[in-house]
Amino acid sequence: MSGVAGEVVVWWGIAQLFALIGWPVSYRLFRHVPALGIAVARPLGLLLTGFVTWLLAMLGLGRFELPLIVICCLLIGGGGWFWLWRQHHRRPPVGQWLAGEAIFLATLLGVVWLRGHDPTPWGTERPMDFAFFNAIQRSGLFPPHDPWLAGYSINYYYFGYLLMAIPAMLSGLPPATAYNLSLALLAAMTAQGAFGIIDELLRLLNHPPRPIIRGVLGVLGAVIILVAGNQSGAIQVLTGDERAVALDDRQLLAALGQALRGEDFITLPYPLQTAPHDFGVIDGWRRADKWNDFNWWWPSRSLWDGYRVAGDPPRRERRYTITEFPFFSFRLGDMHPHVMALPFATLAIGLVLAVVATPPSHMPGSRSDTDAGEASVASAHSVTSVAALFPTGRAGWLMRILHGIILGSLYAINSWDLPTYLLLYLGGLALISYQVGTTVGWRAWLREAVIITVLAFALFLPFHLTFRSPVGGATPWLDVPILSRLTSVIGVYLGERSGWHSFVIIFGLMGLPIIAGSYLYRPAYHVALSDSSQARWWSWLPVILLVIGLLIGFPLIALAGLVWVFGQRALVVAETGVRVGLLIAALGCAILFGVEIIYIRDVFEGLSARMNTVFKFYYQVWLLWGILAPVGLWWMWGGAVGWRWFAAVVVSLCGAVLLVGASIYPLLVVRDIGRGPWIGLNGYTPREQTAAGAASISWLRRYAPAGSVVLEAVALENEAAVASGSETPRCGGSYNWQGFGGVAAASGYATVLGWVGHEMQWRGGDAAALAELGPRCLAVDTIYRSGDLARIQALIEQYRIDYIYIGALERERYPADRLAALAQVGEQVFAQDEVVIYRVRR
What we know:
This protein has 842 residues and is α+β, with helices and mostly antiparallel strands. The chain contains 34 helices and 10 strands.
C-alpha cells in the first residue's frame, strides 16, 4: 500500500494505538460515564505518553527519541491493561465505540482531503509551527531548542507540538505529511470527544432522548464545532463585499436592507473609517458576485473595535480583532497552540462532566460502579461529597495526579486555556461539594481545589522553570506593589464595546438554543424554586440588563445577568446533565463579558488592544458552546407543551436560518478548494522547491546529529543599504515568502537567527534574549558577506555553528567570491546544483 491511502492507514493505526493505551486509565477516570471514557481515551493515551516521555527527557533520564517513546508506550499501555485485567472490568459499550470511531474516521478523512489540496507548510504562521514541530524531534535533550535562535530553548507553549511529534516519530512519515496528518488527528479527536460529551450530557437527564437522537445531536455538535462558520460568510454573499465584516450595527442593518431589496449599490448611512492598511474609508460599494468570488479570509475578522484617534479633527477608527474558528484554522493549516489544545480542552470538559457525575459515596445502596444516570436522579435529601471522587489512600492521590496532568497540560499546550478550564473544573467540584445550609461542603471544595491547582502547576514544574511568559513587560498602569505587576499583564479595555450584531454573527447559532433551552427546560431541583418570586425576578435580570446595555452602548452587559442566572440554577438543579450544561453556559457568558472589560497586554496592544485576547477566548467559547448547543436544542423540545412548544418552534426556525448562514462559509470554501488540484500531503517549503533544495534538507535530516546548528541567511529589511555599506544590517523575515528561516523550519535544526519579529514576541519578557537579536543579525551577515576568515571563525565559535548552508537565497544576496571563501572554514559534505553545505572544521 502506497501513497496517501497508505499514509492515512499508518496514521490511523497509530491513533488506534493511543486509544488502546489510554483506555485503561480512561475507564478508571470515567467509570461513571463509560461512553465518554471511550470518546476521550485517545487524547488521554497520547497525553499520558507525551507527559511521561517529556518528563524523563526534561529530567535528563532519557533522550526524546524513538526508543524512549516506545518504552513509555509499553509501560503506560502495558501497566494499564494489566491493572484492567485484574479489575475484571465491564466490556465498553460497543455501540458508542463504533459510533465514536465512525465520527473519528470521517473527520480524519475530511481534514486529509482539505489539507491534500494545500499541503504546504509555508505561509502565515505555518513556518513557525513546522519549525517547532521538527525542532522538538531533533532536540534529543530538553528543553527543546529554538530553531530560530540557536543556543536558546523554545520560549513558547510547545507541549502540543511535542504531543504531535510523538505519532510523527512513530510513523516514520515525511515531516510535512506528518504535520498535515497531525492537523487531521487533532480535528478527529475533537469531534469524537465532543460527540461523547454531548451523548452523556443528554443521557444524564431525568428523561434522556433515545440513543438515535443522542447520536444525531452529537453529530450536529461536531459539525457546529468543526465545520460551521460564522455568519460573516453569508453576509459577504448578501452584501456583495467582504468589507461588510467591519460595519457597526446601524451600517450593517442598512447594508442588509438594501441588499434584500435587490439594490446594486450599497450606500452606508455614514462613512466607515478603518485603518489605511485595512480598508481605509468606505462610503459604500457596488455589490459584487461574492458567491463565485468568495473571500475566505475576512470572516475570521468579524469583530471590530472602535477607537478615538487623535488628530485635527479627531476621528473614530475601527480596528479588527481575530475571531478565528476551527474550520478556518484547518483550512489555513496553522497548527497553532489554540488548535492543538482543542482535543485536550475537550478532554478537560469531559473530566468536569465525570466529576459532577460521580455519585455520592454515602447514598443508600450506592457502589463505586453506580451508573451516572442513577446519580442524576438522586434524592433531593442526599448530601453529596467529594469522598467518592477521591477515595482515601493511593487510589485517591492517583486520581488527583491524573486530574492535575489533564489540567496542567493545558498551560504547556496553550496557556490561555488553563484559567478557563481550571475555573470550569473548580465549578464542577463546587457542584458536588455544595450542601444547602452548611459550610462542610465548601471546606471540602477548598481543600481539593488547592490540591488540584498545586498539582496542575507542580507536575509541569520543569516547563514553568524554563519558560518566561512573553507578557508582563508592558509599562504598569499603577506603580503600586502587586498592582503594578498585575496591571503590566492585564489592562482595562477603554474602547467601544462590542455590538449586539457581533454576538449574533459569531455566536448566534450556539447562543440561541443554549439561552432559550435553559429558560424553556423544566428540570428537577434539589431545592424548590418554582414558587419563588425572587427566583422569577432574577430570571428577568438579563433582559433588564440588555435594555440598559442597548441604551448605554454596552449590550453584552446582559451576559453578566446570564452568568448569575445560570450559576444559581446549576447549584440547585438535580439533573447532572443540566447542571454541567448550565455551568458551561455560565462560563461562556463570563468569558464573553470579561473580554469586554479587561484584556491581556501583549505585543499587539498598540495595534488593537484586545485583538489577541478576543481571539484566544472566543475560540474557547466556540468549543464550549458548540458542545452545548445541541443539548440546548433538546432542552427546548424535551418537554415542550403549550406556549413552550410555540417558543421552541420560533427559536428552532431562527436557529435553522442561522445554521444555513453558518453553512455558507464551509460550502464555498470546500467548493473553491475542490476546484484546485489534488497535491497530496507532503508539501514543501520554499527552500525545498528545487531538486537540490529538497535533497539538501533530506541530507540534513538524515546525517546531521541532534542539536546541530545550521547557519542560513536571514532576511534584511535594508538589504540595498547594507550591500552599499551605508547601513548596518537590520533583520526581519516574519511571514516572508522567499523561505528565510526555511532550512531550520524544514530540518528542525537550529539556526543563528530566523524570524526576528516572532522572536521579539516570544522573548518579550527576556531583555537578555532581546539584546541578542541585533548582534546575531550582524553576525550572520558578516559570515556570508565579509570574507574575513578570522572574524568568520570567531563568530562560528561564538554561536557554535556546525554547518553552513549556501542555497539560492544566499547566492542571490551575497558575492560569489565571499561565499566561496567559506570553503576554507569547513569541508563540503553536500553539493548539488545551487546548494552547498559545509561542515565546520574543529
